Amino acid sequence: MCDTKTRVDGKTVIITGGSSGIGFEAAKSLAYSGAKVIIASRNETKLIRARDRIQQVTKNPNVTYKQLDLASFKSVRSFADEIQAEERLDVLINNAGAIGLSDRLTEDGLNLTMQVNYFGAFLLTYLLLPLLKSSAPSRIINSSASSMYIGHLDYEHWNDVGRYNSVEVLANSKLAVALFSAELDNILKDTGITSNTFDPFVVRDTNILDNLTDLGRNLTKLFVDMVGQPKEDVGEEILYLAASPEMHNVSGVHYKFCRKWINHWLVSDREVTSELWLETKKLLNITSKAEWESN
User: Fold this and answer.
1) Which CATH class is domain 12-285?
2) What sections of the chain are H helices per DSSP?
3) Tally of CB atoms within 10 A around 45
4) Cβ atoms within 10 A of the Cβ of 291, count?
5) Which keywords does UniProt give here (predicted)?
6) Mean pLDDT (10-residue bins), the chain, 295 residues
């Protein structure tokens, strides 16, 4: 679907969920292209295995890992603190996400799926924006999904347990990602930072279905195996969004199959995207504007 021969030597890229699935494939493609790649996820054993494999096949020694648990703001803040030691950050790829998680609250008192898919990515991006700004031109790439079209955000109840089924809470989290990405585009105009989303559609041979029940997993896997994309293709799409010169100054756009795609209709409503931004900051106890935000 995508083809870019652009080299990204000297660039630093973070990709969450980089130890497996499409995140691993994207990390591998970026390493082939010369980037310094930092893969992030919860499981250190998987991270070490992924790092070693990417280094081996790409011959790029500049592949490292850091542990990151998006279900813990303590972990997100610790990760961001470690990244501040980097000289630059050219691309942040918020790829990690999950479906079928247990319907419970995290240690931070938020719905687990909402935090893993949205709140954690929001906080991570917010904390890393100064480094992205100082490294500009830089790019933020957020993973979305078609479920966003049926999402609904009720700020009084978006973290309720027992209110939403697994599809509904996934849809809500992905709608939040779409609106968040649009507001980033609004806020970051003229900073040299771009913000775009991509929908990987359904992808074969990943562990995204592991949290589903046996019946749900088997039925969904049958569908995915029939119509899903190879994960390598989606990895190439992420590489295109992260590295292609054609993406320079392209922002506020949603991609699918490596083409501009129909975004959620609410992304163009500045009142809606601004409200989400403020409600999220309030929930995350971000009480004052950061210096970059004030400017």
Assistant:
1) alpha beta
2) 21-32, 44-58, 73-83, 112-114, 120-134, 166-187, 214-227, 231-243, 270-283, 291-294
3) 8
4) 9
5) Oxidoreductase
6) 82 96 93 97 97 97 98 97 96 92 95 97 97 97 95 96 94 98 95 95 54 49 55 86 94 93 97 97 87 69
* Residue given tokens 């809606």 in the structure block: 272
Convert 191-252 into a string of H (helix), E (strand) and C (coil). Answer: CCEEEEEEECCCECCCCCCCCCCHHHHHHHHHHHHHHCECHHHHHHHHHHHHHCHHHCCCCC
Work out whether strand 259-260 and strand 254-256 pair parallel, antiparallel, or are unpaired.
Answer: antiparallel
Q: Which two tokens stand for residue 87?
A: 């000289």
Q: Tell me how far apart the alpha carbons of residues 148 and 168 are, in angstroms, rounded to a whole number.
A: 9
Give the number of other Cβ atoms within 10 Å of residue 68's Cβ.
26
How far apart are alpha carbons 252 and 196 in whole angstroms?
Answer: 5
The whole-model pTM stands at 0.91
Asked if 14 and 91 touch (Cβ cutoff 8 Å), the reply is yes
CA-to-CA separations, 90 to 83, 182, 187, 238, 274, in angstroms, rounded:
12, 19, 18, 14, 25
Q: Using CA atoms, how far apart are residues 210 and 168, in angstroms rounded to an integer?
A: 18
